UniProtKB/TrEMBL annotation:
SMART domains: EAL, GGDEF. GO terms for molecular function: cyclic-guanylate-specific phosphodiesterase activity. Signal peptide: none annotated. This is GGDEF-domain containing protein. The keyword Transmembrane applies. NCBIfam families: GGDEF. PROSITE patterns: EAL, GGDEF. The chain crosses the membrane at residues 12-36, 42-63, 75-95, 115-135, 142-160, 172-194, 206-227, 233-254, 298-316.
Amino acid sequence: MREELGDYMPRSRFTLVCGVLGVCFAVFAAWLIGGWGGPDTVLAVSDLGSLLAGGFAAGCAALTTRASRGRQRRAWGALTIALAGWFFGDAVWAYTELVQGVGTAPFPSLSDAGYLVFPVAACLALLLLPIGTLGQSQTRPLLDGVIIAGSLFVIMWTTGLDEVFRLGREDWFAFAVSVAYPITDIVLLSVALLMLTRARSGQRGLVVVFTLAMAVMAVSDSLFVLLNANGSYTSGALVDAGWVAGLLLLAVAAMMGLRSADIDFGPARPGSQTALWLPYVPLPLAVALGANDDGSPTLMIAGLVVVSAVVARQLIIAEENRRLLVTVADQALRDPLTGLANRALFRDRLDHAVALRIRDGRHLAVLTIDLDDFKLVNDSLGHPAGDALLKSVAVRIVGCVGEGDTVARVGGDEFAVLLEDCSEPPIVLAHRIFDAFDQPFSVEGQEVFMRPSVGLSTGQSPDEPATSAEALLKQADLAMYAAKRSEHGGVAAFTADMHRIDLREVDPPRDRDVTPRRSGSAGLQLFAQLRRAIDHAELSLVYQPKFAVPSGRMAGVEALVRWDHPERGLMLPDEFLPLARQNGLMGALTEAVVERAVRDAIAWRAEGTDVPFAINLFPPTLGDLELPNRIVRIVTDGGLSTDCLTVEITEDFLLGNVKRAGRVLEMLRDWQIRISIDDFGSGYSALSYLRELPIDELKLDRHFIAPMLTDERAEAIVRAIIDLTHRLGMTCVAEGVENAATAMMLADHGCDVIQGHYCSPPVNASEVLSVASPW
Ligand code: C2E
Ligand code: CA
Ligand code: CA
């Protein structure tokens, strides 16, 4: 028994009720056997006991019906009807016997109508109970029951039932009713047995009790018919105890149903062997006996019913097998999660399409799609949410392409599309897929923003046509990586120069171990908002001026990013940059910062002052060879010359690929962009890079500046570094200058530029031109 509807029926109460029922039944049976109080009392006890048992069982079934849902509810409802029918029959019976005092009630009577409702509705209940595994037809056990019952009927008929029939010919109706009992019982019992072979472990207890009840009822019915045919049945005989036992067992089954929560379907699995051959056990004998008979119409009808049931059963099995085969074949080529084509099927279709292109010159295109930051969803919302998201993504992609195109899931968060019906330019379709991600996905009640990187190859690049499936896929992948690195575009078509991208250098976020700083869904939400803020230029900048020493002239400003969050208020870089860093948003953020700073610089220029400005660079972005070009383009597009720009970068970049970083710095330098080493002295310090790399400025870390007045060693270091920068032909900037005395001392030591709260805190763009000189 699994999860319990404990409120209704805790285990202790269940055990107690079962015990009480057992005792009651024992007393009841003993009474009938002992014949205490004479025949009249026994009759009354028998009839009332049976009535009580039926009423109790019907009540239990009704309760379970009320407490359950869906299909289970219908099953228990059917059992309630079955038991109510029985109760009605018993009530009529008891009335005729006890009130009208007829002794043993006549047969057949109105009560038989009630009794016969029972097997039909109980059979329905069994078939409705969600027993077995998903995908198994419920018609099959019914047909099986019909085959068994029909065969048994043929056997019974040919071995003497026809005699009984001939004798009882004058009361045809009575005969039909008495035959209806064993037949419906056999169907019911067979169905119960077949259900038992199907039941999975968690369902078995209930089905065993159910089957047992059916067996006891069926045996009692048969005994009744037998005794009745002999004319030896008297009410109050032990047969009555059999029915009561059956009724009580059904009450227990209903209580078990009440105790167990939803009986769930397991995964599809082949049906049991027993269920396959069991229905055919009585069939050969029935055929043998039936063939020898002279062929009464009754037998003919029974035979026809059995044959039809066998044929129908075989058809159902054949159909089930066919479906199973199709499913198996299909599963080998499908991604089980999304139902899209898998890598194997995609490759097969692509090979085919390439062959057609070579033969007929048909067009084709390959798109590869990779989700940015997918791992974040998995990490913060859990894998089921990740799976749900992938399914929704699959639906969106499929919604963008044509009927004849193949969409596949080729990796965790990677998809591929093969376009064969190129009725519109593939790049248009690539953009349509990209745009389909504009709307957030709803995952477990949360809005999740996803961005894809889409790479396209048509194999028709003039420099490098692709003629094989591999080449097409590789080109699409290269384009996809280029798209991922560009941060803004999201879509890229293959061009020959993309080979320059060293794939090992590309660090797509999905491969990184991304743990959002604010873990959980709050982190995810904040991340979605940050991405939005970056995309919609909602981040703002403040500027902290730097002043030349000793002139006191403003030497420039440093742009510092701020995020005016709708709920959290103004956020400082420390509160959101880690999130951007961990999730690959720094490139986009940098570009947004440069764009904003350029706009402000244009405004300052319009007021008559050119203000040089510095931006901060996230060291790993120096791995991106495209970065200098993008920054330069933004500056020159704004009509500014690039020499007004300084990039500040911490020594951390040396931890990465120094060669590549050096190339990027050279490229920036070629554009007269100044390079400043930020927080100098605080991090990685192999001074050799000062000799090798094109550096214009050192910004002395404020942790040396702040204690200068009181700590001689700090002062000595500052002096030495100022000296060093001058010898290397660089500018020295002291940051974090908080008071006049420190400023004086720095001036004494020959520091070129100072920056800090003493001179000016960071201010808004509109205030930059009115910041006064510190002296
Ligand atoms: P940073 O580049 O060293 O920037 C200087 C930080 O020191 C700023 O904090 C500034 O407000 C603060 N500061 C200025 N004067 C003083 C002073 O006299 N005393 C003290 N104690 N602090 C002072 P903020 O704006 O919170 O920036 C923190 C860091 O965030 C920056 O350090 C920088 O590494 C990073 N950051 C800021 N904006 C950007 C950006 O646009 N891109 C990148 N990649 N990083 C940024
Ligand atoms: Ca800085
Ligand atoms: Ca700094």
